[in-house]
Amino acid sequence: MNATDTRIDRMYELLPAIYRVRDADSGYPLRALLRVIAEQVDVVEDDIAGLYENWFIETCSDWVVPYIGDLVGYVPVAEAEPAPDATSEPLRALVPRREVANLIRSRRRKGTLALLEELAEDIAGWPAHAVEYFRLLGWTQNINHLHERRHRTVDLHDSAALERLAGPFDSTAHSVDIRRINSTRTLGRYNIPSIGVFVWRLRSYSVTRTSAYCVEDAGPQCFSFSALGQDAPLFMKPPGLPMPVPRSAIGNNFSIWADGWAGFDPQHPLPASALIPADLSGWTYVPPLKHVAVDPVLGRIVFPPSQLPRKGVRVSYCYGFSADMGGGEYSRPLEQPLGEVKEYRIGEGANCYHKIADALAAWTADEPAHAVMEFTTSGVYVEPLNITLAPGQYLQLRAANRVRPVLRLIDWQTDLPDAMTASLSEGSRLVLDGLMITGRPLQIIGADRVDGAAPASPCGALVVIRHCTLVPGWSLECDCEPRRPNEPSLELTNVRARVCIEKSIVGAIRIHEDQVAYEPIPLTIADSIVDSTRPGGVAIGPVEPGWAHTQLTIQRSTVFGIVDVRAMQLAENSIFTACVNVGRRQLGCMRFCRVPSGCRTPRRHACVSVTPQFTSVRYGEPGYAQLGAGCPVEIVRGADDGSEMGAFHDLAQPQRAANLRARLAQYTAAGMDVGLLFAS
User: Fold this and answer.
1) What is the pTM of this model?
2) Taking 80 as the threshold, does the pLDDT of residue 92 lie above it?
3) Could you tell me the maximum CA-CA distance found in the chain, to the nearest angstrom?
4) Do 81 and 94 meet the contact criterion of CB atoms below 8 Å apart?
5) Which of 378, 266, 278 is nearest to 313 (CA)?
6) Where in the chain are the domains?
């Protein structure tokens, strides 16, 4: 008897044994009755327990937070409230729980500099650093009262100070700037009443003990921290600020393992004494023997040419990104199928398969109805993958929580195009969760139709791609340019299945379906980025010219490229950077989206055509798909609930910023001006 049965039968267990014996002889009718009563008793008990928890701000439900805030005089910011025609649930960012909890303490500390940094964390959830700019003004000093550490001119020999110039940790003296730091036009900084609060919207995401990328074009001694080979800045390790690591302070923000290299212990990372910070922008620096050159700004590593790591290089580091999206080592919910499930673990350990092919061979031999293959380590797997699902079979290929495996597909056969191929059958289900796939596309293939046979069910199968990265352009150059910009990352061929993409980053999608015998397949995309990698490229479209035979539903997503689909059921709170062409305009609608003018779309509601601005449009860079500082407000506040359009809608950043600006003005000392500055 498990714990659930014990809770259901707890009232039955209170009966005297004689009644339970007689009930067993009669087929347990009394137990069945008491189970029904026990369910209602549990509902009442849970409600009573919830009422007690709702007395406290730490444990109360989200809907109770505004009421507790009203008891202590909390007044929501009007600018941060959702639009009048909003249809979504109220965002947590409108009434931050931590701000309400610390409200009385914050009022008592009004006017202190440290409070402003705490407010940014409590209200917006952004790490912050506050700067009093009067301390950075250049002025003539009194010879009897010198400030030797302040008001110095630029020292060109101090490289660390030059790296911090104009940033949140600037220590160089500046002339007076009479513009106000909270101006609605052009911001000024360096003035007596100015206080700047720098906030970091990007987050640091870890990569643990994964293989580095050997940049063979530059030399066998050259490596990149990223498994994709691109230059990307390393970020500070939590609990530090989520900012790039400067060359002058590499510290302990990353680790490098080189098994058997230079006599160092292979069980431990290379010591700090063996690491040399250097500018490796040209791959020209040659470190001395038993030393490794590291460039955290570019994420590059160079070993001595005469002392190469013969057994590979592994690294642990942090990179920057905006949200929990794509393959990454962050916490995410794992779906467990119902019924009896056969589990196969892939990774390092006694009970794990060391190769994906071995796990697939065991799965093929066992033929389970429901199976889960789980990667337990953040390694790089270089294997050909071919999966064939039987009718009604379920397979989930996923990463364990806080693990990011990389499936690197390479050219194995000269006479065939290599890829990760999954063949579906009627009623089969395939789930990919938490994976990064690079090198080749993911191909989903349906069962071949037999001539004369009746058409299969239009939605008999299901494909789910969740928290995955199908690298746009297959792989990246050092400057984050895609290696194969014209190639798709996902190919759907006669799948006859529902395809769902959630919280993922995918390249171009190509769909090839029978447009005569079947209706368009349903394609759902939510909280994701679809990237064609080049201006004028097709992000979602057919293999041949025309419309992709699919019915698209897309919500809270960003699409870089043209969309050519047969029908669009719904497009909501999304950004389309290029034209959208829909065959059946009478079906569906677009609401609260950015779409260029002159496109062939279903009827629109509250859509805009202004040009969006992004921090970066290249996958692999920290600010990828993030709305830029100069992005039009029609997009920044254009969603149905007043938040931003696009893939990062659920971050509620406009509401957080509006809330924070209002509170900073309230808690700043009299006579001072405070400005909110985005460090990332």
Assistant:
1) 0.89
2) no
3) 102
4) yes
5) 266
6) 3-53, 87-201, 203-321, 342-605
